[in-house]
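Hi Prof. W.,

I finally got the LLM class flavin-dependent oxidoreductase prediction working! I wasn't sure whether to trim anything, so I left the full sequence exactly as given:
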Amino acid sequence: MLDTSEKTTELGVFLPVGNGGWITSTTSPQLPATYDYNKQVAILAEEMGFDFALAMAKWRGYGGPSKHWDITLESMTAMAGIAEATSRIGVWGTVHTMVFHPAVVAKMTAVIDQISKGRFGLNIVSGSNPSDQGQMGLWMDLDHAERYELAEEWLTVLKRLWTEERVDHKGKHYELIDCMSNPKPSVQPPIICAGASDRGFLFTMEHCTGSFMLGSDHDDFIKTGLRAKELAAQQGKPGFKTYGLFTIVPGATDAEARERVAYYDSGVDTIALDNQTREYSGDKSFKQNTMAQRFVSQGESRNSMTRAALVGSSETIGRKLAEIVKGAQLDGVTVIVPDFIDDLRTVGTEVVEVLAQNGVMTNAYTHQKAAQ
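And this is what came out:
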């Protein structure tokens, strides 16, 4: 029996700006971390009616036989190029608050706002791991609360530079003296953050427009999404958005999709996973860092991808995804797939059809129907 209630959700793609994408294996599609490939993916997503394309920020890979993420595009410059190559889709870049001064980001975002004509969005990361940024001497050995304290000051400065002609600021981490930043963005870009602890959610609700979240399985996704909505209601933020990140492995049948996963797991790069586990578990805030714990959990389970991956036929994936979207009250779905051309096309045509049948409407579905 189909669920007749309806939920509208945004649909985005998490661009594969790191080689190999998000599957840590030598037998998975060995995606190139090139601008041309990512541009092709973004244009395809736009043509199918996706709402946004998001690029991560990563500075150091994990090696191993797959050389996982040893090659990565810088997020902001990549999205500036994709903004020029597209005309409708949202283009979202990522910055680490420990890496970029907010005055530099204020200028960068204003320029990409011009290129995109108001389509730019910003994803901020308050932490990461000591190796990623430590190799450049930029890692700050702050505890969990201190990282969000820095991020709060960082965003305060950024937003002032977006709106004020001259900024004087003297804080714990930043000092600006008669600082000018022109041009201004035409609109204040949406800001998202992946903080998943209660502290992270509260920070995101106060300073950002949306939360970017993972789940370890079906029930955890729903629990995490509902917790975010509960905290938003308590904070008087009813319009706060939640975006779930989903790894999707489609097949013509459920059995075929499971065979794909088994094949990728047969080539799992345990050396890269061990390096990832060591880097994240070595962080002093590991116990409070929900995202880091999920990376480590993948390494300990020796799987090529998260165990929360949606695997199956388009019918199975669409039904399961609809259950989570509606159960967690998600406002957006961000997609990771093994092959960002053929698999993404499956999501943007077949899966969105099943989502609509199960009461989850997307612009991609509307776009697809209008084109028929």
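The chain has 13 helices and 13 strands. Does that look reasonable to you?

Thanks,
D.
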